[in-house]
Automatic annotation (TrEMBL):
Matching SUPFAM superfamilies: Cupredoxins
Domain Plastocyanin-like: 69-183, 243-303, 362-473
Pfam families: Cu-oxidase, Cu-oxidase_2, Cu-oxidase_3
Family: Belongs to the multicopper oxidase family.
Species for this entry: Youngiibacter fragilis 232.1
Record-linked InterPro entries: Cu-oxidase-like_N, Cu-oxidase_2nd, Cu-oxidase_C, Cu-oxidase_fam, Cu_oxidase_CS, Cu_oxidase_Cu_BS, Cupredoxin
Descriptive protein name: Multicopper oxidase
Key word ATP-binding present: no
Keywords assigned by UniProt, alphabetized: Membrane, Metal-binding, Oxidoreductase, Transmembrane, Transmembrane helix
Membrane-spanning residues: 12-33
Single GO molecular function: copper ion binding
Domain of life: Bacteria
């Protein structure tokens, strides 16, 4: 028997044990903890628009940001307060607005009573500035990474990335958005008035107990899907649309759930950007699916809809009520061409690496190995493109699809099961969903040095070992 097959056999045996004991633990959990209070119902609330983080550096070529990780109390339902976590506030965090070419210092203070990290998801920085599990911030301590923004306009995000407890900290509120602006995006005439015709949506599923507290529960297959949608930390919200075109930046900020977004009237909107930035041309569609960690920017057209209301949906659940004013103004058309995406060259003849995603219940592994902080799984050469083949083999014990995320890089999808990617996946990506039985090929090139993670972005899988490490040198 080959060492690889022996390792996989051992993994299967261990994972089977995890399922048995997980099932027992889950029954005990349900017996000893109060049940959920059911879906939270709130209506008529104006959309919460996150603040934009203040830049303390007056220079146009540099920026200094202060971030405090803190505990808080947040009233989600009927004024009942829940224990939450936040960045510079009680739940979620402000938008951090960066610009290509500037030098940035992030001064992060941990005022929690527990260990945390801050990972810049999608940002291309050296490994020492990435905020993975090696860059922990102890209670009462600070972390101050400095980096230069070296990528085009995009919508990214930030969240904890400590080993074993990322899922809890994100569930209770630690997440926020990062915008990158550049001259190219400035010149396109896209909607860009923050909070007016350019709005952010962090979409999360959560459950609540009858006392209004967050009800985070995990069974042997992972987190129990939330019965209530939060958008920017609010429930049952509306937004007053005052322009013919509305740019919506969507993050699937859930721990484990995929969301398919559409308009209640079935109308077409245009997707203009994916994880890593603008697409080459807008993609007209009536729906897009995002797995945990993925982002999309869309432009919805409200011309001819003055005085009407359209709901943005996730499946059959309401995300946001969009109320068009009786007198909406023309704010320009979406260009037919957006950007020219730099090619990495032909994938022919490149080094090929294989990544097999394996999971049983809440536990997981990649290539038969669970995460080890002291082990480097792959060594990659700086600036040398490679082809990665990511598979999610079918099996009775597999726990579904996996969003595969790579730190410190933006890659291109070459194919899904031998077919070219669809229009929504032709731009830069840092997270790709790999369904059961699928093979996804990506073209990847690292431009920064250091140790980076690759992992499943179902946070409970990540916490339970479905992660590996790359050394780029």
């Amino acid at each position: 028997m080959s060492p690889k097959r022996a390792g996989l056999g051992l993994y299967a045996a261990l994972a089977a044990s995890v399922i048995i004991f997980g099932a027992i633990a889950y029954v005990l959990f349900l017996n000893f903890f109060p049940g959920t209070g059911g879906p939270a119902v709130e209506t008529g609330n104006r959309l919460k628009i996150p603040a934009v983080l203040h830049d303390y550096d007056p220079s146009p070529d540099s920026a200094l940001y202060e971030i405090v990780v803190e505990k808080g109390k947040t009233a989600f339902i009927d004024g009942k307060e829940a224990d939450t976590l936040g960045y510079n506030g009680t739940y979620l965090g402000p938008v951090i607005r960066l610009r290509r070419g500037e030098t940035v210092e992030m001064n992060v203070a941990n005022e929690l009573t527990e260990f945390t990290t801050v990972h810049w998801h999608g940002l291309i920085v050296d490994g020492e500035d990435d905020g993975g599990p090696h860059h922990g911030i102890q209670p009462g301590e600070r972390w101050a990474p400095v980096f230069t923004v070296d990528q085009g306009a995009a919508t990214l995000w930030y969240h904890p990335h400590l080993m074993g407890n990322t899922s809890d900290q994100v569930y209770y509120g630690l997440a926020g958005l990062v915008y990158i602006d550049d001259e190219v995006s400035d010149s396109l005439g896209l909607p860009d008035e923050y909070g007016v015709d350019d709005i952010p949506l962090i979409v999360q599923d959560r459950s609540f107990r009858s006392d209004g507290s967050l009800d985070y529960r995990v069974n042997m297959m992972g987190v129990i899907p939330g019965d209530t949608l939060l958008v920017n930390g609010g429930i049952g919200q509306f937004f007053d649309v005052t322009t013919e075109r509305l740019r919506i930046r969507i993050l699937n900020g859930s721990n484990s759930e995929n969301f398919t977004f559409s308009m209640s009237d079935g109308s077409i909107f245009h997707m203009i950007a994916s994880d890593g930035g603008l697409l080459e041309e807008p993609y007209g569609t009536d729906g897009i699916t995002l797995s945990p960690g993925e982002r999309a920017e869309i432009v919805a057209d409200f011309s001819g809809k003055a005085g009407k209301t359209v709901n943005l949906l996730a499946g059959n659940r309401n995300v946001l009520e969009l109320r068009a004013a009786s007198d909406i103004r023309d704010n320009g058309a979406v260009p037919e061409r957006l950007v020219e995406i730099e090619e990495m060259g032909s994938p022919t003849g490149l080094k090929v690496r294989y990544f097999e995603l394996q999971s049983m219940g809440i536990s997981g592994a990649i290539n038969g190995k669970t995460f080890d902080m002291e082990r480097i799984d792959e060594k990659v050469r700086l600036n040398e493109p490679e082809v990665w083949i990511v598979t999610n083999p079918p099996g009775m014990m597999q726990s579904g699809g996996h969003p595969f995320h790579v730190h410190g890089v933006q890659f291109r999808i070459l194919s899904r099961d031998g077919k070219l990617p669809g229009p929504a996946e032709r731009g830069y990506k840092d997270t790709v969903f790999v369904n059961t039985g699928e093979e996804v090929r990506i073209l990847i090139r690292f431009s920064k040095v250091g140790v980076f993670m690759y992992h499943c972005h179902i946070l409970e899988h990540e916490d339970n070992g479905m992660m590996g490490q790359i050394l780029v040198e």
